[in-house]
Amino acid sequence: MAVKVSKLKRVEKVTLILFLLPTLYLLSFFVAPVASVLGGLLGFDWHLLNTPFYINLKPIGSPIEIRSFGPRLFIVIKGVNMGVILNSLINSIIVTLVSAVIGTAAALLIGLYDFPGRRLFAVLAALPLLVAPFVNTYVVKLLYGFNLQGNTLSYLLQHLGLKVTIGFTQLGGITLAQILAFYPIVYINVLAALGAIDASLIEQALNLGSRGFKLIRTIILPMIVPGILAGATLVYILSLEDVGAPIVFNYKNVISYQVYEFFQEFTSIGGVGASAALCLIMLLLALIPMAIIRKYLSLKYYARLSRGAPRPFKRLKLGKKGLIVAYLLVLPVLIAAAAPQIGIIVLAFSERWVGALPQGFTLRNFYFIFSKPGVFRGIVNSVTYLAFALPMIAILGFAAAYVVARIRVKGIGLLDLLSTAPLAVPGLVVAFGYFIFFHAIAQGTPLDPLVSPAVVLVLAYAARKMPFTVRSVYTGLLQTPRAMEEAAESLGATKGKVLRSIVLPLVWRSIIAGLLLSSIYVLSEVSVSVTIGALGGDIVDPNHAGPITYVIMRLIQAPSISGGAQPQAVAAAMAAILMALEALVLFVATSRLARRGQMLVSV
Amino acid sequence: MTQVIIRDLRKKLGKNEILKGINLEIRSGEFFAILGPSGSGKTTLLRLIAGFEVPDSGQILFDDKDVTYLRPDERGVAMVFQNWALWPHMTVYENVAYGLKIKKLPKEEIDKKVRWALELLGLEGMENRYPHQLSGGQQQRVALARALVVEPKVLLLDEPLSNLDARLRLKLRGEIRKLQKELGITAIYVTHDQEEALAIADRLALLRNGRIEESGTPEEIYQNPKKLFTAIFIGKTSYAKGVVEEVDGDKAKVRVGENLVESVAHGVNKGEEAIVVFKADMCKLTPKQGRTAIRGRVTVPMYMGAFVEVRMVPLGYKKELTFYIPEQEVPPPGSEITVYLPVKAVHSYPVEEGVIEEEEEE
Ligand SMILES: Nc1ncnc2c1ncn2[C@@H]1O[C@H](COP(=O)(O)OP(=O)(O)O)[C@@H](O)[C@H]1O
Ligand SMILES: [Mg+2]
């Protein structure tokens, strides 16, 4: 017994605080809200979900309709409609599979081979990583959507002499938009996995005469499977929780839209109970694959990847056949996926773009951002929320990373899990949980989102976007030998002193890199922003509480704006600024962590 | 000056018991080496003494004070790490001054002591350099200066020279010992290099699989190893398996193939199998009173300059033995020779599981 006490005495107060801060925060402001989704289920009759609206095993109509009007061929891809739940699941599975294939192929081509134009390929593949919520899908709709005024793709086909109109709509449109936006997440994860392969492994295989497809199939693929799985799982979750594409395509028969709608009227078809039930289903659908490949999403695996190989391999020469595949097969896909990002910039400088082609050049859209009070308010709000969330992320994220990296006590695994879990939980579930939780325990106080969304938004941002900082700091700590700290301790330094004089000076770059990443993901956060953020009034109110993404969404939905600008173009101008910021941050943050030509797995 | 007493120290890491009841008494002002092969638990033991880990059971005493559960900063030890752990964001001066600043000494005193330590280790003029601007040997000296300047009760060194080249290792180990004696600090030095341990220590202990196998002065350990493991591990040795034919006081005659080898006996019994360990660099090709003989057929002879390395198979025996013979003439392969060793350079031990490499057991 005496021994036990003396062992406890060894634990420094500082260490205990470092452990308790993030643990208590995440338990109370992440786990508890998410768990309170269950509270919303009280008295819910699950039979209500047993209707064709939610699950429909006998869909009518064909997913792809082909009709001819005179000489013109119309191909309309609208996907199936098998009810809200199955639609979400089917869509996510298709998006995940297609993204995995495209992302892996692109990564193998760009990461493994050298060929003329490789850099262009790399830039195109990375472009969609600059997230521009809502606007991105809006441009996808202009480019490829089914539109009576025609879309850009069909316009181009017509000029190539093909009398065909191709258009994506409904679930088909969502699927397309998500694939184009999300496949780079697989791409970048696989690229990172490739970067962790040591040169000797590939040289050995080459020596033994393995090359081309055989080399890829027998040597490379087995080593990048974790990267593919990690990327694909993230895509799956992002697809499941994405509410931007359904809103823009105005397609309500998916889970995310249904949950989103709850916040419009505080009732949806089926009431609170149905929304809670859908949240729970979405959560389970997200957590199951996550649980299976948990190892590859852990801090340890991430840190190993971002360290890269001790000796990276030299890229292989791409043969003639490979070149043909690269240019005829891969390049068109990369262009098609990068086009929306480029389209956003075009739209931002256009007077009008509703049909196949944009019209007129203008800077007016940018002017509107600053001159329309309700629009500008979004920027002010976002920056304010960020200013409060960042210090929290810095302290909590550092504490969590330090404890997980350095303290070896049973139960630390819980914090490892807790601090990365927000990546796995769909944002809408978090938003819904926050609403239920705070509205229940703090009704009428500033914590009640109906009273003031601001506090809840800051709390939610800090919890959801902390993992990026935790991962970055954790990686930095693993690269700093523990003996550096022990040397100081043995010279008489207390834990607090060691943290200040040794640890912080050695890992501050990782902290900054992590905070930069967390920042751009706070600024581009959608789920909580457009739900809780909407509770403070619409953007016509110059004092609304919505952040940037909420304003962008409202602009995309708006029919017109006073002063004559196309609201979607103003949204594009905001998105363009956001993307520029993201590009800058990704560049700064990864150039440090990417010493060996290694890309940071940043999503 | 501090005496270190370790009582029945046990430590598990993960599922494995790394230290299985360590007992040691390290005298005040002594240079004590802990010698053992890689993985034997040396670093773990040192980390327990430093306070980076706590034992599962057992006690660590500094003089009469129980420090078992004290935190590292409360113990008054200083540790020199295998990779030196210099802080890359601090200059040499700042690295060395760190421990004194922690103690909140007045500025002038810090300065005086740092200069003293830097001078002691021949680092004058390097004050403003950063660790990456130093050679390996210089970094090692800074690590040492940083530990010494705080005048620790106990100085712990974990293979501090293993990252340096052979020449520098030799030079620095002499310097470390000299400093320790001058300052009168109790030092515990961990190494896997038996020659280094013998050269540097007042006394040493052999660690094997988390247990202390044997301890004593370098002379005792080298000249009269009490355990088979020690006998094989220390010095340049060869060994063979045989059957004891005769035990006479502390001497035993062991049959190895056709040879009957005289040896110093360590608990062997007549009629039983035994391992005979030869100090392979103490042999000659000429007979003399008090020498025992082994005759065998040469397989691989190699000229090594000061001596000849001869591999030979003793007559009637199945394994090769290696001897180092101070001759300039290389015996041709296939020839038969007889090597002679002083009996005190041949020791026999009962066969012990797990000490001899497996391939030789069959
Ligand atoms: N954190 C740990 N968890 C589990 N086993 C460990 C850990 N650290 C060391 N070991 C094991 O303990 C044994 C002794 O390690 P160590 O004390 O470092 O030996 P040495 O310093 O003598 O080489 C080794 O077998 C090693 O694999
Ligand atoms: Mg060691």
From TrEMBL, chain A:
<feature type="transmembrane region" description="Helical">
    <location>
        <begin position="218"/>
        <end position="238"/>
    </location>
</feature>
<feature type="transmembrane region" description="Helical">
    <location>
        <begin position="164"/>
        <end position="197"/>
    </location>
</feature>
<keyword id="KW-0997">Cell inner membrane</keyword>
<keyword id="KW-1133">Transmembrane helix</keyword>
<dbReference type="GO" id="GO:0055085">
    <property type="term" value="P:transmembrane transport"/>
</dbReference>
<feature type="transmembrane region" description="Helical">
    <location>
        <begin position="502"/>
        <end position="523"/>
    </location>
</feature>
<protein>
    <submittedName>
        <fullName>Iron ABC transporter permease</fullName>
    </submittedName>
</protein>
<dbReference type="GO" id="GO:0005886">
    <property type="term" value="C:plasma membrane"/>
</dbReference>
<feature type="transmembrane region" description="Helical">
    <location>
        <begin position="447"/>
        <end position="463"/>
    </location>
</feature>
<feature type="transmembrane region" description="Helical">
    <location>
        <begin position="417"/>
        <end position="441"/>
    </location>
</feature>
<dbReference type="InterPro" id="IPR035906">
    <property type="entry name" value="MetI-like_sf"/>
</dbReference>
<feature type="transmembrane region" description="Helical">
    <location>
        <begin position="16"/>
        <end position="44"/>
    </location>
</feature>
<keyword id="KW-0812">Transmembrane</keyword>
<feature type="transmembrane region" description="Helical">
    <location>
        <begin position="269"/>
        <end position="293"/>
    </location>
</feature>
<dbReference type="Pfam" id="PF00528">
    <property type="entry name" value="BPD_transp_1"/>
</dbReference>
<feature type="transmembrane region" description="Helical">
    <location>
        <begin position="120"/>
        <end position="144"/>
    </location>
</feature>
<feature type="domain" description="ABC transmembrane type-1">
    <location>
        <begin position="101"/>
        <end position="293"/>
    </location>
</feature>
<feature type="domain" description="ABC transmembrane type-1">
    <location>
        <begin position="396"/>
        <end position="596"/>
    </location>
</feature>
<feature type="transmembrane region" description="Helical">
    <location>
        <begin position="324"/>
        <end position="349"/>
    </location>
</feature>
<feature type="transmembrane region" description="Helical">
    <location>
        <begin position="89"/>
        <end position="113"/>
    </location>
</feature>
<keyword id="KW-0813">Transport</keyword>
<keyword id="KW-1003">Cell membrane</keyword>
UniProtKB/TrEMBL annotation, chain B:
<dbReference type="InterPro" id="IPR003439">
    <property type="entry name" value="ABC_transporter-like_ATP-bd"/>
</dbReference>
<dbReference type="InterPro" id="IPR050093">
    <property type="entry name" value="ABC_SmlMolc_Importer"/>
</dbReference>
<dbReference type="GO" id="GO:0005886">
    <property type="term" value="C:plasma membrane"/>
</dbReference>
<feature type="domain" description="ABC transporter">
    <location>
        <begin position="4"/>
        <end position="234"/>
    </location>
</feature>
<keyword id="KW-0547">Nucleotide-binding</keyword>
<keyword id="KW-0813">Transport</keyword>
<dbReference type="GO" id="GO:1901238">
    <property type="term" value="F:ABC-type tungstate transporter activity"/>
</dbReference>
<comment type="function">
    <text>Part of the ABC transporter complex WtpABC involved in molybdate/tungstate import. Responsible for energy coupling to the transport system.</text>
</comment>
<dbReference type="InterPro" id="IPR027417">
    <property type="entry name" value="P-loop_NTPase"/>
</dbReference>
<comment type="similarity">
    <text>Belongs to the ABC transporter superfamily. Sulfate/tungstate importer (TC 3.A.1.6) family.</text>
</comment>
<dbReference type="InterPro" id="IPR017871">
    <property type="entry name" value="ABC_transporter-like_CS"/>
</dbReference>
<dbReference type="InterPro" id="IPR003593">
    <property type="entry name" value="AAA+_ATPase"/>
</dbReference>
<keyword id="KW-0067">ATP-binding</keyword>
<comment type="subunit">
    <text>The complex is composed of two ATP-binding proteins (WtpC), two transmembrane proteins (WtpB) and a solute-binding protein (WtpA).</text>
</comment>
<keyword id="KW-0500">Molybdenum</keyword>
<dbReference type="InterPro" id="IPR008995">
    <property type="entry name" value="Mo/tungstate-bd_C_term_dom"/>
</dbReference>
<dbReference type="GO" id="GO:0016887">
    <property type="term" value="F:ATP hydrolysis activity"/>
</dbReference>
<dbReference type="Pfam" id="PF00005">
    <property type="entry name" value="ABC_tran"/>
</dbReference>
<protein>
    <recommendedName>
        <fullName>Molybdate/tungstate import ATP-binding protein WtpC</fullName>
        <ecNumber>7.3.2.6</ecNumber>
    </recommendedName>
</protein>
<dbReference type="GO" id="GO:0005524">
    <property type="term" value="F:ATP binding"/>
</dbReference>
